[in-house]
Design brief:
about 350 residues, 434 Repressor (Amino-terminal Domain), six-stranded parallel beta sheet, Rossmann fold, six-stranded mixed beta sheet, alpha/beta, homodimer, DNA-binding
Chain lengths: ~350, ~350
DNA sequence: TTGTATGCGTTATCAG
DNA sequence: CTGATAACGCATACAA
């Protein structure tokens, strides 16, 4: 049996006793077809188990109904949330998703883009793996629309969607200030890293508006252990005798991990949280879990994915004359028992 | 400027002063081309920024160098590990990955497959979202090779790769028995669910070989809270006075979450772990984290992805005369402080 | 070794 | 409304 191949439109047409043109029109609905032939074609199609060959169609239409998604290979919950929402969004437009991972390495990144262009994807969504390196990859895309998500590399024409960092910090500072904080210490941000410096400055800026002082603790690492060490230093420095506390009245941690470490130590050493010190985190590491032990900021990855798709579809539709758009999404403040009610 | 289009092979050929055939041969290396023309074509190609149109190529070759990956939409770390490893594996073969999520719903599942067939993917890797529903979807793939991964639906021709469940349970029981356990209680498995019943039976079977009794606690849920409740019942039932314990000397939990709950309660109530009772988990929920607080089994998702790709590539190469292969991978035992050294 | 011509499966154009 | 036919861009059988 050599009929293993999929039936073609010609097969359908023959079976229905019409031309391929009519068969095509009947199936796509691009042009009106008489009810009679319409029915015949549909029947023939069904009885043969015909499925349109997307490859041929793409070649003819110069459009693949496909978008490429390029992600750095951090195995985090964030990125899988992003993948899912992008996949979802595309599905609504009957588009497919081709996925590629990139190392933080120039050539590989570039190859990914090239390969996607070779496949003639209609658009690309990329989370730039490296801020120094990805620009030219992105620009290599040329006429095909690109949307950056999460991270952001300055380019001429690409849209981007990211977190509204200022909003994030101001939400958190406001939350603490509203609950009586007057002296905030930042834990787990590295004053030698550009991105972290920006965050610290942003915290200080909003702090100033609320009359709250914000300073950064020495960097001890942005993981659980770093939180533990930072908290132990705090306790040895500020906890005097029993229940006395001359330290900051609020701690802002880089993420939930750090906050967990901090919380564990403070409580173990008898420092009341949130009574004496409030603790909050800038980044929810496990959006799945709904334990409200720490007040934290949930980054809107699913929403970012949706927005990226929206921008991309729009850009695809609109052709080449566009202006770069940047959309920033606010994080969600998830109150927990580490700050006052 | 209407030259926004990508250059075609014809453009390259013209620029190099050769026929398209020669240009094609020079670039693909399918047939020998004189050094001189070889060079000319390469140059022309580079200077024009030519990139082979994969769509046209696929149509001609009847091969897309693409595989579809269909996943249920559980946002777990497991699946992202799977995606990554599949993506990796495919990359080694210069193949692309098109990703689709499926609901546990028949029509949607079927549509995914149909869409992939329409795109003429060379193969499909699928984690069946529902054991009842996916069979016909899989069989709809017809001539194109399918590999199931993680879950397994009985079909005629599809390969599959999964966890070696028997091996998993026996590893865990052996680990506990080697450390003196003689009476194991299973926590967090549901004696009313088929899959769980099989696990319980498997535990009992290996227990019998080692002279260890295995019974299952009443099902209180397979999450943290379930572990807590189960442990509290145990304590109230078996903890007599101070430090007396007449209960099981080992607990096997459905997953790390349950184990965490159990551990917290036991330690809080003064039951020594692993001194009096050892605790282990059947499923490592956060393979990323390296906290060794619980002895647990790490499921080999990355390896499963690799294996799935291997099977698929092989099946694609081999054509239609194949026999269904099933490969089972052993989990990795990660010792932690909840069992004895 | 190189060139010419054909077809992969669809869709759009242009006549009827 | 319908049909014949010409692309889409590439790779190969066949001829030179």
């Amino acid at each position: 049996m050599d009929t293993a191949d999929q039936p073609t439109l010609a097969d359908v047409a023959e079976r229905a006793g019409v031309s391929v043109a009519t068969a095509s029109r009947a199936l796509t609905g691009a042009r009106p077809v008489s009810d009679d032939l319409q029915r015949k074609v549909r029947e023939a199609s069904k009885s043969l188990g015909y499925r349109r060959n997307t490859v041929a169609s793409s070649l003819r239409l110069q459009r693949t109904e496909t978008v490429g998604l390029v992600l750095p290979r951090y195995t985090t919950t964030f990125l899988s949330a992003l993948i899912e929402s992008v996949s979802d969004g595309l599905e609504h437009h009957d588009m497919s998703l081709v996925l590629r991972y990139s190392e933080p390495d120039a050539v590989h990144d570039r190859e990914n883009i090239e390969s996607l262009i070779g496949r003639r994807v209609d658009g690309i969504i990329i989370c730039p793996p490296s801020l120094e390196v990805s620009r030219e990859s992105i620009e290599a895309a040329g006429a095909i629309p690109v949307v950056q998500v999460g991270r952001f590399v300055e380019t001429d024409r690409s849209d981007s969607v990211g977190l509204d960092e200022d909003r994030a910090t101001s939400m958190l500072v406001a939350h603490l200030a509203d609950r009586g904080a007057g002296r905030i210490l930042v834990v787990g941000l590295d004053a030698d890293a550009t991105a972290d410096v920006r965050r610290i400055r942003a915290l200080q800026a909003t702090g100033a508006l609320r009359g709250v002082s914000v300073s950064a603790a020495e960097f001890t690492g942005a993981v659980l252990d770093g939180g533990i060490r930072a908290a132990e230093r705090l306790v040895s420095e500020y906890a005097s005798g029993d229940d006395g506390w001359s330290g900051p009245d609020a701690l802002v941690c880089a993420n939930d991990d750090v906050a967990s470490g901090v919380l564990a130590v403070l409580r173990m050493r008898g420092v009341a949280v949130p009574g004496t010190v409030q603790v909050a985190s800038l980044l929810d590491l496990a959006p799945g879990r709904e334990d409200h032990s720490t007040t934290t900021l949930r980054h809107p990855w699913p929403e970012m994915g949706r927005e990226a798709v929206r921008l991309l579809i729009d850009a695809i539709g609109r052709g080449s004359d566009r202006v770069a758009r940047r959309v920033s999404l606010a994080p969600q403040l998830v109150p927990g028992s580490s700050t006052r009610p």
